[in-house]
Amino acid sequence: MTTDTAVRASDEGSGSREVHAATLEPDINVRIKPRSRRMRIGALAERAGVSVRSLRYYEEQGLLESERTTGGHREYRESDVTRVRFMQMLYAAGMPSRRIVELLPFLATGVATPTMLDHFDEESDRIQHQIEALTATHDRLTRLRDIAAESVAGRPPEECRSSANAAAA
Predict the structure, then answer these.
(1) Phi/psi zone of residue 149: left (φ > 0), alpha (ψ -120 to 50 degrees), beta?
(2) SS (H, E, C) 88-114
(3) What span, in angstroms and rounded, lies between the C-alpha atoms of 165 and 21?
(4) pTM strictly above 0.85
(5) 6-44: b or e for each residue (b if 16 or more CB lie within 10 Å)?
(6) In contact, 112 and 132? CB cutoff 8 Å
(7) Which of 53, 76, 108, 165 has CB atoms 3.0–4.6 Å from 80's, for a disulfide?
(8) How many CA atoms lie within 13 Å of 115's alpha carbon, on the beta-carbon side?
(9) CB 107 within 8 A of CB 120
(10) Using CB atoms within 10 A of its CB, is residue 59 exposed (0-12), middle (13-18) or buried (19+)?
C-alpha cells in the first residue's frame, strides 16, 4: 500500500512545483519456494556412512527406492538417511537382506502382519544368542588377560599354561 504526500520543491529557474513522494509499506507475505528435500546418491552415501555401491545394491535388493531426474540421476528423500543407517545396523547384526526386505515395509506403513511379528521375534532371539556367545567369549578373554598379567608379574609358566588352558576350555 502506498500513500502520497505533497511536497513543495523548487525547480531551477522556474520557481516552485508540487512533488508527490510515495511511502511504501513492505509486503511481509513473501513466499519462498521450499527447498527440495531430495539428495543425490553421493550425498546420501556420505550422510549415511555407506558406499555408493552399497546404495545401488540396496536398490537392487528392493531395500531402498529412488526417484530419477530427467537426466537419470537417482534422488533420495531425507528419511532415507535414517532408513539406510537402520539397514546397516541390521546387516551388522547378521541379518540377511531377504529378511530385511520382509521387515522394512513396517517402517513405511506402520502396519505389521503376524508373519512380520514372527520374523521380528526370530531375529531378536538370534541376536540375543549372539550376545550371549560374545559375552562368554569376552569373559574368557578377560580371564586369559588376567592370567597373562600374572605371568608378567612372575607367576611360573607351568601354572599360567595350566590356568590358561582351563580358561580357554
Answers:
(1) alpha
(2) HHHHHCCCCHHHHHHHCHHHHHCCCCH
(3) 98
(4) no
(5) eeeeeeeeeeeeeeeeeeeeeeeeeeeeeeeebbebeeb
(6) no
(7) 76
(8) 6
(9) no
(10) middle
Per-position pLDDT tens, the chain of length 169: 555 555 555 555 555 566 555 665 655 665 544 445 799 999 999 999 999 999 999 999 999 999 999 999 999 999 999 999 999 999 999 999 899 999 988 988 999 999 999 999 999 999 999 999 999 999 999 999 999 999 999 999 999 999 999 999 8
Entry field: residues in the chain: 169
Query: ∠48-99-42 over CA atoms, to 5°?
Result: 20
Q: Which residue has the cell 505389521?
A: 112
φ and ψ at residue 112, rounded to 5 degrees: -110, 160
